[in-house]
Amino acid sequence: MRKYILFIVFLLLIPVYLWATDGVNTVEHPAKVNSVATPDKVNTVSGLAVAGSACSGNYGDTAIEGSLDKVSPDGTDDGLVVYKITLDCSGTSSDMYGHFRYANQATREVRFVVYSDNAGEPNTLLYTGNAVYDAGADSGGGWVHDSDAYAFPSSGDYWVGVIGEYADTYFCYGTQVGSKVRQLDDTDFTPPNTWDTENDLERDNTEASFYVIF
């Protein structure tokens, strides 16, 4: 009899147990749990200057250096003198300047030139300017400039200077560690297409008063 009563109680408790545990330990997983929307162009920065961007300002030696020497290395022929400048940009120049003194009041002309660089030496002629003269650069000295534009194609080293028409054209130079000026005799006021490094005069730790404006 007792066993029969316990069995009846057990049967009656089953529905109660099922009702009490309905939904226990179940989890409803919402769509896109822990999902993050990724916006376009995350961590992008605009307007930063990069190497090889457009040039602006002056490049070269804008000071009037205190020493003078003839453009022509031997002092008799016409001569070329160039100074290495380094660009961190590219662009078209508006002017090229050089500071000169002439031995007399007679007209003395120069042509500005640009040479490419090859392993630290002048190499190929890139630009030859028109003949220019500035009366302010007579015996007292002064800046001569060429306003013809030249498009420097990329960042890097270039050799900028002049070819002088006569032997008594003097350029201004100074001393700066790591700089270099090259000079080369010339006789016909026409710069060579390729610089003659074997026959030029190399001036280490020397700068010249030449610069380019962009």
> What portion of the residues fall into strands of 2 or more residues?
35-45%
How much helicity do the residues have?
A: under 10%
The overall average pLDDT, rounded, is: 79
For the largest beta-sheet, the strand count, sense and barrel status come to: 11 strands, antiparallel
Structural class: mainly beta
- Got a strand count? 14
| Distance, first to last CA | 114 Å
CATH topology: Jelly Rolls
Query: Which CATH C-level class is it?
Result: Mainly Beta
Task: Using the 3D structure, state the CATH architecture.
Answer: Sandwich
Kindly provide the radius of gyration, computed on alpha-carbon positions and rounded to a whole number of angstroms: 39 Å
The parts where pLDDT drops under 50 for at least 5 residues are: 23-51
Q: Give the tally of structural domains.
A: 1
- Taken from the alpha-carbon principal axes, the silhouette is globular
What is the H/E order? HEEEEEEEEEEEEEE
Tally of alpha and pi helices: 1
Describe the structure concisely for a colleague.
With 214 residues, the protein is mostly beta strands. The chain has one helix at 2-20; strands spanning 53-54, 58-60, 67-70, 78-87, 89-92, 95-102, 110-118, 121-128, 142-146, 151-152, 156-164, 169-186, 201-208, 210-213.
